[in-house]
Give the backbone structure.
Amino acid sequence: MNTDEREWQAQELAAKAERAGNVLLDLDPLSAGYVPIVRALREPMAVGLSDDFAARVARLAAARASAAGADSPMENRMLIALGLVLGLSALASAIIYGGNWFSAIPAAFGKLGPSSGSWVLLLAGCLGLSWMGEQVRQRNESRTMSPR
Amino acid sequence: MDADSHTLADDQALVDEVLAGRPGAFERLVTRYQKLCWHVIHRMVRHAEDTQDLCQETFLRVHQYLHQYRSESALKSWIAQVAYSVAKRHLERKRIPIAEPSEADGNSLLEQARDDFDIESASIESQSAAHLHAAIECLPPMQRTILTLYHLEELPIGEISLVTGLAEGTIKSHLFRSRKQLRDALGESMGVAA
């Protein structure tokens, strides 16, 4: 057994003695030297929380949970309704004007210059970067909010 | 009954009650573990008002994520893990180092402790005890917390590893070196007092 291992055993023996109410009276000098340390570390700490801390936190947690519970279904319902309205409008527009659009597309491409392709790529790049930024932000947020 | 004497079944029953929205269940959970929460956070941040706020934040987080608790580990360890994480983030935001300082800093525990203590007005015995407590306060936040979890909360090293996310060998190393530093500081203070 090397010096560190012997000292670790002495520390643990002192801890064991203190936990057992110091019944192991025949501690060797090395272990006995650690008894005051362990005793100090086991001294109860004053807790500076108010008497109504638990009740207050429980009320706050319940209020937050009910607020979150009340908001989410409402928001979800509104989002679904909005999506449906937009979808129906797009469908109606496509049915009414679709024929004209399809016939106009080749003509529109014909009028664009050779640099138009790079503008389309730039637009796609911007959209891609925004999407990636949002993904990173959401990932960081969920990491911050989880217990660890 | 304190937080130490609850079995995994007790913990799971209480968690189920909280998740079922049983009135008073979460308040009982907070009452049961608020002392543990204070011990972990106060040992880390050493500021009473910040500790109060962070204890509240811890339990709000516990309430929010309790559905993720699996009874493979004790609820005590899970809550200590949340408290440790909240306190660690607080210290990181304030740019306060949580781990061990350099060797040179570590050797000056007694000198740091002496600054906070009036040697003239105390007896030799109380001087030693006060120096020891001051030396504990001078340890870095992580070491103080590990010592508290091990000696005051009596968590096994494996559970402390879960709480802090450190390997068991690292926990043992912190325990060993911190206790040795404290014993050296105590020895020095007794030399000074004599």
Observations:
- Residues 102-106 of chain B have pLDDT under 50 and may be disordered.
- Residues 92 and 98 of chain B are 8 Å apart (CA to CA).
- The longest helix of chain B spans residues 168-193.
- Residues 103-193 of chain B form a domain with the Arc Repressor Mutant, subunit A fold (CATH 1.10.10.10).
